[in-house]
Design a protein that fits this description.
It is a single chain. By secondary structure, the chain is of the alpha/beta class. The protein has one domain: Rossmann fold. It has four helices and six strands. A six-stranded mixed beta sheet has the order 2-1-3-4-6-5, sandwiched between helices. A hairpin with a 4-residue loop joins strand 5 and strand 6. It is globular, with a radius of gyration of 15 Å.
Length: 160
């Protein structure tokens, strides 16, 4: 494994900090669609499931359901051929309570007013944004929490 590949994995200490922010209810099911080395997955309570394309389990073909998704998705088309909007929409199909995404500032560009309105129409809104520095990634990152049927903490221009 080269240093570039090592750079991509979610640091364990970051996962420990962020998982504490997820609203956990005993018996809720958890899912990690981009498991990588398991930084989030290893901390999730049971019952839980995962996907990882490199291990033959493709998120886009996942047919299960869960209450919570926690992940650091591959946000650019260079990784796994997915864009962040495709990932978010699939997360909304799989989860019934919360979708929790660790994103870079570049990945935040997917949040257009049109998309936020479409998400809201499906019952999904942003309910928390946790800002952090991830030293090994040299910059600012955002843990965005979407919840089902909960008021949004942000506003945006609603397009006609």
């Amino acid at each position: 494994m080269d240093n570039k590949e090592e750079f991509n994995w979610t640091p364990e200490e970051t996962a420990k900090e962020l998982i504490k922010l997820v609203p956990i209810v005993k018996g809720d099911r958890f899912y990690e669609p981009f498991k990588g080395r398991g930084a989030f997955y290893d901390l999730m309570p049971e019952p839980k499931d995962w996907s990882e394309i490199g291990e033959g389990k493709d998120f886009l073909t996942y047919e299960g359901k869960c209450e919570h998704i926690i992940t650091n998705p591959p946000w650019n088309k260079g990784n796994e051929g997915l864009d962040i909007n495709t990932i978010v929409n699939k997360c909304f199909e799989v989860s019934t309570k919360s979708v929790n995404l660790l994103l870079s500032s570049k990945a935040l560009n997917f949040m257009t007013p049109k998309r936020l309105t479409a998400y809201e129409q499906r019952g999904w809104t942003i309910t928390a944004i946790h800002i952090l520095n991830v030293k090994k990634w040299y910059g600012r990152y955002f843990f965005i929490q979407f919840r089902k049927d909960t008021p949004s903490i942000i506003t945006w221009h609603k397009e006609d």
